[in-house]
Amino acid sequence: MSGNISQDFSHQSLEQGGQVASQLPLVEELTPYPDVEQIFLEFAGDDSLLLLESARQTSSQGQFSYLMCNPLTRIQIQNTHYSADPFESFRDVYTKIFVESIPGLPPFQGGFAGLLSYELGQSWENFARASHDEFQLPDLAVGFYDWVIAWDHNQHRAWLIVQGFDQSLQTQDINLAAERLKSLKTRIDSSNFNQQDQLAALSQSAFLHANKLSLDQLSPVYPVERNEEILSNFSKTQFLNQIEKIIEYIYAGDIFQANFSQRLLSRSTGHPAELYLNLRSKNAAPFAGYFGWDDWAVVSASPERFLNVSHQEVETRPIKGTRRRKFMPEADLLTRDELRESEKDHAENVMIVDLLRNDLSRVCKPGSIRVPHLCEVETYETVQHLVSEVRGQLKPGKTVWDLLAASFPGGSITGAPKVRSMEIIAELEPTVRGPYCGSLFYAGLNGEFDSNILIRTFTVRNGWIQFPVGGGIIAQSHPRLEYEETLHKAAGMITALQK
Fold this sequence. Notes:
Elements: H1 11-14, E1 26-29, H2 36-43, E2 50-53, E3 64-68, E4 73-77, H3 88-96, E5 111-116, E6 140-145, E7 147-152, E8 157-162, H4 174-190, H5 195-202, E9 222-224, E10 227-232, H6 236-251, E11 257-262, E12 264-267, H7 272-282, E13 287-293, E14 296-302, E15 305-310, E16 313-316, E17 319-324, H8 329-341, H9 343-361, E18 370-379, E19 383-393, H10 400-407, E20 415-416, H11 418-428, E21 439-444, E22 449-452, E23 457-461, E24 464-466, E25 469-473, H12 479-497
Antiparallel strand pairs: 1-8, 2-3, 2-13, 3-7, 4-6, 5-6, 5-21, 7-8, 9-10, 10-12, 11-20, 11-25, 12-24, 13-14, 14-23, 15-16, 15-22, 16-19, 17-19, 18-19, 21-22, 23-24
Helix pairs in contact: 6-12, 7-12
């Protein structure tokens, strides 16, 4: 199985706008420069819509956004099991199809993309699931996307890219590609891009008429302090007691750290696309995303990259350490300095950096792993984070699927040592995490790969919105402060729930 190799286009040819070439893939620049929100609403009702958006474009990480839907094929794994290869059904296809990048365009130009839920980690580590799973989200939901709309926010340019694969993914066909490109371009050109009309159309969506769970069908829930419309899978007392247990595990020598979370819940009344627009306007993030699949959707304002692979170079950017933003500029600067100088947060971050170095070393060349940035403060709308960067070079013969097997789920949302932390999380958290702490990703036919960590994330299904929040627990953690930190992280998300 092989894909046709695209022509090596120069940047000069791209500057002309319009269609770039007659060979595959077909590319057409969209002019005038389209608004991501308008395009998103135009396609929000389509099958398996995936938007990977750099909504916070002032960030150095916020250059590209991608939208795709109606995949040629879909793969779903409901519940994985230990020693399974969740990528088996498309690993060979991905390896055998290679389509060279068109220079000057954003790196993702079509391929596999979708969701990896936290519990997919059971494929590689033998740990139990949490006891309650009332929403039944799949462990893996992935599509093969033959076309993508790609934005370069630095250049203020966007392109429609169509690969032209047939349904079997065996060959590319220029006539298929031309037909798809024409249909998509016609749809974009004919849309009136009226937000009110677009949201009204979504209000008739079958998504809003899906089965809704009653309160007594949920695992036990408790009102959240100072916000009784929000429910949690813990009472405050229970959450504090579980943190005490984690600290006991640390002093017993089981672990150094565990990432512990509470799942917050709110009733869902509108279409999740509207929730995404609220979230992106109030809590913009460089690794935001929306994924609508059947009767559920993932809505994320993630600030955290999980893994990026470009030309076999691997990058991961763990976040550990958080402070709530202050309204006064002087106080905000003091908060930043406090975070930077915090021994607890620094130790927590370095611990995860060491874990990720170990994970990457399983698939990267010896001596290639390095830490260009350690414990640097990054500022977002509602919080400040301590962020590091770890890099390495993949060994010859190793693929992104080997990298995921070695490192999923991300160490920043598990703890250290990783496996024992995951066992303790499953023991002490009563509900499965599902998409939370998993990843939205793309794996391009040109070998490019990128993914986020699904924090600051809503999952919508059965009439409810889930949005877990958590933090790293170490020996020096104070249970009450850790509880308050989870609510600080939830603040921007709770605001987004208010229409």
